[in-house]
Amino acid sequence: MIAFVRGNVAATSLSSAVVDVGGIGFELMCTPGTLARLRTGTVATLPTSMVVREDSMTLYGFADEEEKVVFELVQTASGVGPKVAQAIIAVLSPDGVRTAILNEDVKTLTKVPGIGQKGAQRIILELKDRIGAPTGTGGAAATPAAAAWREQVHQGLVGLGYSARDAEKAVEAVADEAGTTTSPDVGALLRSALRSLSKA
């Protein structure tokens, strides 16, 4: 299996990045928060997890090992495939996932697109004894230029299945949180935007 890739970022899209490793372009499916950290032409090292199906082999890339561990672990719960697992780490930090499961916080888990109340309860039941305690690292923070955060959050929400109109409303809802900082945390803003949509 491919544990990680390291190379020049050749391209990024709404949901993936292409990393040039020795002349071979590996396409990695990534969360918006991870993609926000990548810059075309720069060298990146991304932990990876390969999901093999009868008709496909998909490589998922992560900001750090903690995201990879949680991504792989949540898939051991019934009904959680790679797309839902990726949505989980897009909405919640690794420690956020651990805390929600340990505290049996169904409400937090149902903020993830694709997880209903029964699904959240099943995840808690099956993973509570295996998820482990929060590490306190919080995961890697995404820090793109201030001018780019709106587009990154908007693209992330659309990629998670929300309409462009709803995504735009959510972006406006978290604009004050972004403030005027030159390096807003896109991962945190995306989570806030998702919270605002869940309240709507």
From TrEMBL:
CDD domains: UBA_RuvA_C. Its main location: cytoplasm. It is found in: Cytoplasm. Keywords: Cytoplasm, DNA damage, DNA recombination, DNA repair, DNA-binding. It holds the Pfam family HHH_5. Transmembrane segments: none annotated. GO terms for cellular component: cytoplasm; Holliday junction helicase complex; Holliday junction resolvase complex. InterPro entries: DNA_helicase_Holl-junc_RuvA_I, Hlx-hairpin-Hlx_DNA-bd_motif, NA-bd_OB-fold, RuvA, RuvA_2-like, RuvA_C, RuvA_C_sf. Residues 142-200 are annotated as: Domain III. GO terms for molecular function: ATP binding; four-way junction DNA binding; four-way junction helicase activity. Coiled coil: none annotated. The keyword DNA-binding applies. Belongs to the RuvA family. Homotetramer. Forms an RuvA(8)-RuvB(12)-Holliday junction (HJ) complex. HJ DNA is sandwiched between 2 RuvA tetramers; dsDNA enters through RuvA and exits via RuvB. An RuvB hexamer assembles on each DNA strand where it exits the tetramer. Each RuvB hexamer is contacted by two RuvA subunits (via domain III) on 2 adjacent RuvB subunits; this complex drives branch migration. In the full resolvosome a probable DNA-RuvA(4)-RuvB(12)-RuvC(2) complex forms which resolves the HJ. The RuvA-RuvB-RuvC complex processes Holliday junction (HJ) DNA during genetic recombination and DNA repair, while the RuvA-RuvB complex plays an important role in the rescue of blocked DNA replication forks via replication fork reversal (RFR). RuvA specifically binds to HJ cruciform DNA, conferring on it an open structure. The RuvB hexamer acts as an ATP-dependent pump, pulling dsDNA into and through the RuvAB complex. HJ branch migration allows RuvC to scan DNA until it finds its consensus sequence, where it cleaves and resolves the cruciform DNA. Has three domains with a flexible linker between the domains II and III and assumes an 'L' shape. Domain III is highly mobile and contacts RuvB. This is Holliday junction branch migration complex subunit RuvA. It comes from Nocardioides faecalis. The gene is ruvA.
